[in-house]
Amino acid sequence: MEFDFTTLPERDRYRLLSSFVAPRPIALVTTLCPDGVANAAPMSFFNVFSQEPPIVILGIQTRPDGTVKDTVNNINARQSFCVNMVDMALAQAMITCGISYAPDVDEIATAGLTMTPASQIEGGWIAESPCAMECVVAETIRYERREIILGRVVQMHIRDNCLDDAGRYVRPENYQPIARLHADNYITSDRQFELKAPAQPPAGVTRKAAS
């Protein structure tokens, strides 16, 4: 099957892209409204793209009526946000936060979650999240119906049992984030396995010299 994205309707492009670029990690993004009310919204068009500088990216579309979402308004106003990773314990609360509320509604409290003051940005992070990243805006790319926001990570909060004793590697039995597949389907990372590069290249292939 072939699909010409230069002529394909937007709804079909979304369906194909989100179905095959999957699973996608979920960012439960916390921000502060101009009047100080906390806001939380789940984003599955999200990932980490660099460690130097430490950059995460959000892709946030407008509402169906074309208006800008509260998260985008808050990020543009304060130039900061926090990404809270989502595991099974947070799954239902994440869905609750995704409901369209009035700007003066505190989604975090509505979902029964706890806001912890941030260390380096305005606002806070969700205490129940296994990992939260405070970010300042590095760059924003604006399209007609979507903003691509690059955030520089300035602080990371990690639940104590998620890392080994040396603080280097994730304990997969304790950190199992969920991710979105397509439509209302999600997956959790409770089945993990290792794949290691072979010690020697295949016969007849020369390994690239180290630079």
TrEMBL record:
Gene3D superfamilies: Electron Transport, Fmn-binding Protein, Chain A
Organism encoding this protein: Sulfitobacter indolifex HEL-45
Keyword Flavoprotein annotated: yes
Signal peptide: none
Superkingdom to which the source organism belongs: Bacteria
InterPro entries: Flavin_Rdtase-like_dom, Split_barrel_FMN-bd
Cofactor or coenzyme needed: FMN
SUPFAM superfamilies in alphabetical order: FMN-binding split barrel
Family: Belongs to the flavoredoxin family.
Assigned keywords, A-Z: Flavoprotein, FMN
Protein name: Flavin reductase like domain-containing protein
Sequence ranges assigned to domain Flavin reductase like in this UniProt record: 20-171
